[in-house]
Amino acid sequence: MHKEKIITFGELMMRLSPENNERFTQAHSYEAVYGGGEANTAVSLSNFGVEVNFVTKLPNHPIGQSGVNSLRQYGVGIDNIVRGGDQIGIYFLEKKTSQRPTNVIYNRAGSAFALATDSDFDWDMIFDDATWFHFSGITPAISDEMAAITLKACKKAKEKGLTISCDLNYRSKLWSSKKACRVMTEICKYVDICIANEDDAIGIFSMDPSKAGDKEKNAYIAEELTKMFPNFKIVASVWREEKTITTFKLQSMVYKKGKAYYSKEYFMNILDYIGAGDAYCAGIIYSIINDYDPQKAVEFANAASCLKHTVSGDYNLVTVEEVNKLAFSKAGNEVSR
Fold first, then answer.
1. What is the pTM of this model?
2. pLDDT less than 50: residues of the chain
3. Pairing mode, if any, of strands 193-195 and 163-167?
4. 49 CB neighbour count, 10 Å cutoff
C-alpha cells in the first residue's frame, strides 16, 4: 500500500439516543456515543490501517476530552484538534423501529466547532506531508464562517497537490437548498472525488432524476454532476431501498470516465445505519489509494457500508479482512473459527 496520510475535517458530536428504542418523550436515560461524518470516515480508515488525522475544535473540558479519547482509541491522529469554546455539538437520535422513521434533533448552534474562526486552523501545517483531504457538505453548512474556512482549506489542499474528496451529504435541517447550491458550487470546483446520492443532487443542485429517461438514475446524476464539475474524476453513490419493514437492499455505484460500475446487492437487517454513508466514503478512499479498479472499488466500499449497518454507534469497527471476506468471498456469513 502506498504511504498515505488522510486529513478529515468536520464536527465531532455527542450522540444521545433513548435506550430500548424508546421515544424522546418516554426516555429517562440516554445512550451516549460520539460521531460525525468526517470523524466516522477517519475511524473507518484507521481501522483499515491508513494513517488519518481528524481536524476539529472541541472544548477543553472532560466532555471534549471524552470525544478526543473516542478517536484516539481507534488510532485516529488528534494532533490537529483545536481546543477551546464551551460546548460540544450534540444530536439526539430516535432510532427507526418498524414503520416509525428515524428522527434527529440537532443541538449544535453554540458548539465550539460552530463558533470556530479562520485563525483556529493553520492549513499549511495541517496539510504538511498529507496526501488526501476529505470533508462533507455538513461542515460548510454549520456556519458562514465554516463555509469560508472549508473553501480556504480546499484551495490550500489543491495548492499542495492533495486529492480532495467530498461527501455532499445535504442536510435540510442545517441550510436551504438555495444556500447549499451557492456555497457548494464554489467548493466543488476543487473536489476530485464526489460522493453523492439522489437526495444530495436534488437538495443541493435541484436535479430532476425523472429526466434520466432510459438511463439508470444514479448514473444520470453522476453524468450531470461531471458536466457541472469537469474536475470530478469519480462520482460514487450508495443507496438503500426498503424491501420489507425489516429488510433493506443496499447497492452502490462508481462512475468514472463516462462509465457506471455497480456493486452486487445486499439484503440486510439493520442494527444501526447512522454512519453507513461515511463507511462507504472510507471504502472509496481506501480503494483509490490502493489502486483498485472501479469494479473492485465499488464492491469493497459497498461491503464496508453493509457491515456498518451491523455495528451500533456512529463508527464502523470492521477490518479490511472482514470487508474483503464479505465483498469477495462466498464464505462471508460463515462462523469465523
1. 0.95
2. 1, 335-337
3. parallel
4. 12
